[in-house]
């Protein structure tokens, strides 16, 4: 429906930093093109005009907090030039912002109905489990829901807290708890999130705290974040026989340090071209003897983003590595600071670090 009525649909998360050049860059980027590093505001303004000129567009400015009328006036001047019928949609928690922006129509989201409130809580607290048939928990849950005041974030948060709790006294405790501080929305959203955080196990609290290292409004890739948690030792990696190397092409950190019995690299490891960290690259005795060491080493050529240190270990006497010398393999690894090469012949080890 939206795409049928607008030539361009653009979405930008503004947040509390209302800076003209930054917003303009985000709008240009949201059109689907690559992000250029514009040095001057004039340059990005010209690119923005090209994006909007003569086109009927829908621009969503999400999570806006600016209450300065002058800044709004400057932004509006940057957005002129679109075709008739172009629309700008703002989302905010601030009533003042809604007024100073000069909005033509305001729509305030109300509380959820009693029916929708219970449906959401039931989904979060019970999921597909049969515990929802426990009439006592259902009755206690409905009283908890009434204390949430129809606020979706509060319902999701409180419902998720009860997800693993099946004892009635645990539910009664929450029912008797004063939830008024987390049902007002606005500035009390943090209280809702804090309530969820306080009920997490200690190891998962560390995972949440780790996310504070990312800048505000940063788009976090779930797979990369989980990989970083594993690399930091916050959670344990789990594998099964269905895992495939091609499913891990975005992996950035791989540590074989805890696998002392490992004697060869997994098949297809060369596909993991996003790796930043690879502690060890091991060539088996069979590879060394058969002359396949060259082919194995060639898989390293795609790891151009490896950083800090790489340890290459040959288990067995190397017959030949042909023209693919170690220098040729690692010469494109511009971020690599140390290369360690180890040759193991039976009980004898030779090490060369440079």
UniProtKB/TrEMBL annotation:
Molecular function via GO: ADP binding
Domain annotation NB-ARC: ranges: 2-127
Keywords on record: ATP-binding, Leucine-rich repeat, Nucleotide-binding, Plant defense, Repeat
GO BP term, pick one: defense response
Pfam families in the cross-refs: NB-ARC, WHD_DRP
Domain Disease resistance protein winged helix: 213-248
Matches recorded under InterPro entries: Apaf_helical, NB-ARC, P-loop_NTPase, WH-like_DNA-bd_sf, WHD_DRP
Stated family: Belongs to the disease resistance NB-LRR family.
Protein name in the entry: Uncharacterized protein
The species this protein was found in: Capsicum baccatum (Peruvian pepper)
């Amino acid at each position: 429906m939206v795409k049928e009525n607008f030539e361009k649909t653009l979405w930008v998360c503004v947040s509390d930093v209302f800076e003209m050049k930054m917003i303009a860059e985000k709008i240009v980027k949201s059109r689907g093109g690559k992000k250029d590093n514009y040095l001057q505001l004039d340059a990005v303004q010209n690119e923005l005009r090209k994006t909007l000129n003569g086109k009927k567009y829908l621009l969503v400015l999400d999570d806006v907090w600016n209450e300065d009328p002058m800044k709004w006036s400057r932004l509006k001047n940057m957005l002129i030039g679109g075709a008739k019928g172009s629309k700008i949609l703002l989302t905010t928690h601030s009533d003042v912002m809604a007024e100073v922006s000069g909005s033509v129509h305001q729509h305030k989201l109300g509380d959820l109905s009693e029916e929708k409130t219970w449906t959401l809580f039931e989904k979060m607290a019970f999921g597909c489990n049969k515990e929802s048939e426990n009439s006592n928990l259902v009755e206690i849950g409905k009283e908890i829901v009434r204390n949430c005041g129809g606020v979706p974030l509060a319902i999701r948060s409180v419902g998720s807290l009860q997800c693993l709790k099946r004892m009635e006294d645990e539910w009664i405790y929450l029912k008797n708890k004063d939830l008024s501080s987390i049902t007002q929305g606005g500035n009390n959203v943090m209280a809702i999130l804090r309530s969820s955080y306080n009920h997490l196990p200690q190891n998962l609290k560390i995972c949440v705290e780790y996310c504070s290292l990312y800048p505000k409004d940063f788009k976090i890739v779930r797979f990369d974040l989980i990989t970083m948690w594993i690399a930091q030792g916050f959670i344990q990696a789990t594998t099964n026989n269905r895992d495939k190397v091609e499913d891990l092409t975005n992996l950035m950190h791989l540590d074989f340090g805890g696998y002392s019995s490992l004697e060869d690299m997994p098949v297809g490891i060369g596909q993991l071209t996003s790796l930043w960290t690879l502690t060890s690259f091991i060539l088996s005795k069979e590879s060394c003897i058969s002359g396949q060491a060259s082919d194995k080493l060639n898989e390293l050529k795609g790891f151009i983003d490896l950083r800090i240190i790489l340890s290459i270990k040959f288990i067995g006497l190397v017959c030949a590595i042909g023209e693919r010398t170690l220098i040729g393999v690692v010469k494109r690894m511009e971020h690599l600071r140390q290369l360690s090469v180890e040759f193991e012949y039976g009980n004898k080890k030779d090490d060369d670090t440079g």
